[in-house]
Amino acid sequence: QWYQRRVRGMGKKGRAKNNKEARGPVKQIGSCKKFHPETLTKRLEKKQAAQRHKRQNGFEQVRSLSDLIENAASRQRSFENTIANTTDNSLQVKEGIKRSFYKEFRKVVEQADVVLQVLDARDPEGCRCKDAETAVLADYDKRLILVLNKIDLVPPDVAKAWYKHLSKQFPTVLFKANTQTQKSRLKQSTVDVMGVNHKMFASSACLGARELNKLLVNYTRNKGLRTSIRVGVIGLPNVGKSSL
C-alpha cells in the first residue's frame, strides 16, 4: 500500500511539471514590449514629429488676433439671437396662459350671483387680487365674500384679527376644510368658528361651513322671488378652492 501511494504521488508531480512546461514561462508586465519605456518614448516622439509636420505644411495655422475677435463677435450675435427667440416663445406661451385664465375667470364671474374669493390665512393680503374684486363689483347685482381658509395653520388670535380687518371691507368667513379621507358623509362642526381654539383645530371636521351657508342663504332672499343662487369660487393657486 505504501509503495502504491508513493507511485501515485510521483505520477501527480510529474504530470504537474509537464503541464507547466507546456504552458511556457509566465510573462511579466514589465517585460511586455507595448508598455516598455523605450516603446512609449518612441511613440511620443513619433506623435510630436507628426504634429510638427502638420504645422509646417499649414494644416494647423495659427489664427491672428483679428480672426479671434471676429469669431467671438459672431458667436455673441448667435447667442443673443437664440436668447431673443427663446424669450419671445416663452412670452407667447405666458400670454396664451393668461388669456385662457382670464377667459375662465370672466365665465365664472358672469354666471355667478355670489363670488367667493378664497384667501390663505397665512398671508391674506398677499392672496387678494384687487383687479378681480373690481371686476366682480362692476356688476351691482353680484356679491363678493372673502373666505379666510386654512385658519388651523395660524394661531386663533391671528385668524380673528384678520377677520376683523377684512370684515370692514367685505363679508368675511373663517374656514377650515374637512381633513377626512372619504369623499362622502363629511363632518361639519356646529361650534361657532369665532370661539375655536387649538383643540378644535385638531379635529378633522369642517369649521365655518355653517356660517358660510347662513350668509349664502341670506342672499337668496331677494324680495322673496328667488329660491336659489349660483356661487362661483376664485382665488390664487393652492389657497384651498377645491377643498372648499
Radius of gyration: 42 Å
- Strand adjacency order, main sheet: 3-2-1-4
Number of strands: 4
- Report the sheet-strand fraction: 5-15%
Q: Determine the fraction of residues in helical runs and give it as a percent range.
A: 40-55%
Low-confidence stretches: none
Structural class: alpha/beta
Architecture overview:
It contains eight helices and four strands; from the N terminus they run H-H-H-E-H-H-E-H-E-H-H-E. With 244 residues, it is α/β, with parallel strands linked by helices. The chain has helices spanning 2-23, 37-56, 65-111, 124-127, 130-137, 156-167, 198-201, 209-220, and strands at residues 114-120, 143-149, 172-174, 231-234. 53% of the residues lie in helices and 9% in strands. Strands 3-2-1-4 form a four-stranded parallel sheet, with helices on both faces.
Summarize the structure.
The chain is an alpha/beta fold.
Topology:
Layout: H1 2-23, H2 37-56, H3 65-111, E1 114-120, H4 124-127, H5 130-137, E2 143-149, H6 156-167, E3 172-174, H7 198-201, H8 209-220, E4 231-234
Parallel strand pairs: 1-2, 1-4, 2-3
